[in-house]
Design goal:
Elements lengths: L1 E6 L6 H18 L3 E11 L2 E10 L4 E8 L2 H18 L1 H10 L5 E10 L17 E12 L1 H11 L3 E6 L5 E6 L5 E4 L6
Parallel strand pairs: 1-2, 6-7
Antiparallel strand pairs: 2-3, 3-4, 5-6, 7-8, 8-9
Helix pairs in contact: 1-2
Length: 191
């Protein structure tokens, strides 16, 4: 597995890098058969250290975790524990995913835009109905089943996931509702 360990305005020493590789390597071998690469980023937030870890699995799924603590090793250990908990929770489904899927998840490209927030008072009329685009990027849309999309959303810790439904090829969305349940939008079924 390839590791990319870096710090945002923090010097990440050899001892910490060795600790990260050893501990994260143990978690990955315990729960996933073929991780491809891991990215671990350390940063500071006031008096706390923040550790963000992203692990890409060979099937195309991605697991993410984030934790903070007053010491840098404790921040990583908290992040590792969260990753361990996520992967333990989905261990059976990940193994079934490996067995059922001979090829890795396919990704299609799509444009992603960041729109400027409205300026001024909330009740003011905007000058135009066209939002101002402040950033444009390429994003990847996975082709997975609904169950795999929910699992990917849970593993990445995100609030929603746009995906191409393997069943019919249409674009779908799964999202976390305020009541804690998962919502699924399938425009193909609306008539």
């Amino acid at each position: 597995m390839r590791y990319q360990i870096s710090g945002k305005q923090i010097d990440v020493g050899d001892a910490l890098q060795t600790h990260v590789k050893t501990e994260l390597g143990e978690v990955m071998t315990k729960y996933s058969q073929r991780p491809t690469d891991a990215t671990v980023v350390f940063s500071r937030d006031a008096h706390e250290f923040v550790c963000e870890a992203t692990v890409h699995l060979s099937t195309g799924l991605t697991a993410q975790a984030k934790a903070s603590a007053t010491e840098i090793y404790a921040a990583f250990d908290g992040c590792r524990e969260k990753m361990d908990k996520q992967l333990r929770r989905y261990k059976r489904r990940l193994k079934d995913h490996h067995r059922a899927r001979a090829q890795p998840v396919e990704f299609g490209g799509a444009q992603s835009y960041i729109l400027a927030a409205s300026e001024g008072p909330e009740d003011a009329e905007p000058d135009t109905l066209q939002p101002m685009i402040i950033a444009e990027m390429e994003t990847r849309i996975p082709s997975v089943s609904v169950g795999e999309a929910v699992m990917q959303m849970e593993l990445s810790g995100s609030q929603m996931l746009v995906f191409r439904n393997e069943g019919h090829g249409g674009v779908n969305v799964v999202y976390r509702r305020e009541d804690g349940n998962i919502g699924w939008i399938d425009p193909r079924n609306s008539k």
